[in-house]
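Fig. S4 source data, part A: sequence.
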Amino acid sequence: MIKDKEVVLTRDGLENLEFELENLKTVRRREVADRIKQAIEFGDISENSEYEDAKNDQAFIEGRIMTLEKMLRHVKVIEEMEEGQNQVTLGSTVLLFDLDLNEAVEYTIVGAAEANPVKNRISNESPVGAATLGHKTGDIFEVQVPAGIVKYRLDEIK
């Protein structure tokens, strides 16, 4: 039997998933049930696009609920990093300096379930996230990314 993968989340990430699950179960389910009921009242459902659309939304919502419930059964919460931490771990916010582009970038290393590159929250499974783990301030390391090799210096762990 294959063991389910552990889902690593920050405290905020856990709260967000729990909120999303509660919203899907209480608000979104009711909304889509009302849409289905209303579409059925229109009569023949065989050619009713409103009914089809609502049923598709219902299937998506139920699938997402199952996914979230499974994730929450296997969650491991990352505790807040202590001030003055000297090594990058899950939950660390790091300031990296790209030695090739001569620019700094800040990332928070999180589990894959709450990664959001737009908000500079990168997965510990991503090339940069995985390569950064375990390093200390001042370390220089290379990362193989799709565009080639990038050389970083770890300037700060926040």
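Fig. S4 source data, part B ends here. Residues 11-41 form the longest helix (31 residues).
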